[in-house]
Amino acid sequence: MKKIAVMIYPYFSMQEISFLTDGLKVYFDIDVDVFASSKEIIKSEDNFQVVANKTFDEFNVDEYCCLILPGIWNPLPAVFDAKNIEFLKSLKDKDILISSISSSPMLLAKAGLLDNVKFTSGMWDEICKGLDFVPYENVIHKPIVKDKNFITAMGFAFREFAIETIKTLGIDDCKNGIFNGIPKDNKEEDLVYEMGEDNFKEFMNEYNSYLEK
């Protein structure tokens, strides 16, 4: 399967996309590449320091099936980084799923990608109405909206955002326990997880190799 791309920028929210990216990489073993306008340190909204492993000029759309945009605590630095907007403009009419959560649809709007797309976002309503590049007539006030090759969601719907993206990519039907949250009728025996004899042997071999160092 093609790879997944994640776009980052100052004050981005890891929390809003980590359920999705962790699922893609850990559970489905799909490679995830992180892109930004430069390889300088970028601080997330919760002050983690992150360096993208690739810049936009290394992006080949044919290698990726999905681009994920996390939300942004303060979107203005990202919106006024011309490299961000030019990169997104280059994706117009390309065959790639774009999944954007919380305030990040502001970037898509700035790039003109939402002019004919129904979408939702976590932007304040006054901002949606006040920015001339945001097509407010296309806003749908729902937690998550899928239209054409775009999935957009409000920040609190990060689980639904992940599920909709994974389903749309055709990776999984998302009916297993990973995506269902905590069942209300948990029994103790349901919470005993075994890795299997072969996996346990592999773990112990690695564990013992550390003891020998």
Protein described:
This protein is of the alpha/beta class and 213 residues long. It has helices spanning 15-27, 76-79, 82-89, 105-110, 125-130, 158-168, 197-211; strands spanning 3-7, 32-36, 42-43, 49-50, 54-55, 64-69, 97-101, 144-147, 150-153. The radius of gyration is 19 Å and the shape is globular. A seven-stranded mixed beta sheet has the order 5-2-1-6-7-9-8. Strands 3-4 form a two-stranded antiparallel sheet. The protein is built from seven helices and nine strands. It has a single domain (3-186), classed as Rossmann fold (3-Layer(aba) Sandwich). 30% of the residues lie in helices and 16% in strands. The mean pLDDT is 92.
